[in-house]
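Two entries, shown back to back:
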Amino acid sequence: MRKIVSWTAAVVMLLTMSALTQAEKDSEIPGIGPIGKPVKLFTDFKFTEGPAFDLKGNLYFTDIPDNKIYQVDTKGKLSVFLEPSNHCNGLMLDGGNNLLACEMDGRLVSINLKNKKVTPLTSEYQGKRYNAPNDLVIDRTGGIYFTDPHFRAPEPLPQEKVAVYYRAADGEVTRLADDLKAPNGVILSPDEKTLYVIPSMQKEMWAYPITAPGKVGKGRVLCTLKQEPGYKEPGRGGDGLTVDTNGNLYITSGLGLQVISPEGKLLGIIEVPEKPANVTFGGKDNSSLFITARNSLYRIDTKAKGHRFPGKSS
């Protein structure tokens, strides 16, 4: 049975926790925090991923091995939103009433929040199914950037290589990059002029200038993630990520959330009790981090505010 900490109880826990130690205060990132310690909201899942908030304040996240999408409503009630989910991973709202989802079984889909109808957006490229779509981000035109690595994909790989794609609002799909080892997390800068791609089998994180929706220039190494002790080349990469209103990136890694400035500088690391897989901003004023971390979901309050991608409602 799920171990659940209600939204109300979580708030009480935050208010009654002992103050941060001096060492913890010294490790705070200026202008970011965190404020207080991590709070475990829900646990006893198999592997959580894909946190995303809708405009009403409902949180959605996935449990990949359990083949479900969960919803946490504004009162803190946990329920199964969709089952089976075709092993959904990354999620994001489209700016309207639809939840965009990467099905690791080979599709990018849109799920109507009202009736839960699943509409395929793209299921193949050049006549072949995708490997296992992993993460996504929607731009202001309604186009979707998404990654397609090898995790949970059939062997041999249907696409023969791992890649980053763009599905335009009119349905046309373009392959943007296929030279990274395992493109995983993906997100845009707040001004949507830069595409960030987070590989999970190398320590270098990448940034691509966007010349037009779905068109990118030559990629560059944005930063090199700090490594856990004992990891050798090519190093351990990231997984998911989110971005705040100042353009700072919060990249999940074995050390926690590595906070990287738009210039590629490591601002600090926010520690999480379990290794985080993905993260999004939400809650009051969009200033809390909601983190899917292995078997659990955590919340960490911050001074920073998350950027909301407006998308384009359909």
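entry 2 starts here
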Amino acid sequence: MRWLPAIYVAAVLVLEPVTPVQWPVSFLLIALPVVAAFAHSPAVVAGITIFAVTFEGVLAGTPCCAGRSVGYLWERHYVAVYVSTALVGALGTILAAHRTRRERTLATVRSVAETAQRVLLRPVPHRLGPVIVESLYLSAAAEARIGGDLFEAVPTSHGVRLLIGDVRGKGLFAVETAATMLGAFREAAHEEPDLAGVARRIERSMNRRAAQLPGSDMEERFVTAVFAEIPDREPVVRIVNCGHPPPLLIGRDGVTELDPTDPAPLINLGGLLGDEYHIDVESFHPGDQLLLYTDGVTETRDRTGAFYPLTERIRSWAALPPRELLDHLHQDLLAYSDARLDDDTAALAAYRLPEETRDC
């Protein structure tokens, strides 16, 4: 875009000598200041306006350069062009100033959003005891870079506890809900003896927050979530699924969807549906990997509208370590959707280290 004004002038120079005198292409230079306003500062646009008026006069008044036998420097149509270019230049300068202010504002908003994201979705530790954990987060709100998906990994005396969730709604509405839930989880993960207790504790926190808000604001903020616990010394993973897409277990038997035997109610719906949270226990041996993800992954669509077949796609690169697995998933989602991700996307990969590598 910064080179567009020069390209525009070059095109005019190519066309002007071969154009009949009654069709002076130099009149096209009227648009030059607006072309410059797309990428340059107000001062540069003002300078380009002066250049455009001067250059129009050169083309009009120099027969040898304009391909004519006589100059038209002060011919009334050309004088009108000079005036028009100056007026368009003034408008282009204003446009450039407005664009520059918007860019500065957007840069500030992005900086604030990125800071908020680092506080809300702080990077998970790479190594938590016998478990390697990696995360992926992609926001559909590209300008804000923060959305309603959430995740966390916490080392506790009960093992590594993981959370991934998806808030109903978008924008600040979803961010505030995610913050409430993450704050509750970071406390409950250490204090509750089992995952059912963690889920109940978070349910109570969300209900208290709902009671503080006017109307039904918080009551309508439902969250699907998966809680997982990987004990340090048992080859199992314990899971509570609250209406969320089932995790994938990547192990010696291939890729398996861990569907809940008794799905729990969505978070913030316990008051309506009850707060019974069933814990599923699955084998999770050294070398196995657990993938938690939000529906932004499985609801990604291709050109034909077909959903992303996560289980099928991941089988061909399931042997990758966690970071490479998530990076590959990211690139595959972009390729599948032609870089059009319409929903927030989050994923956590947890890998249980083999016994012989835990002290490395």
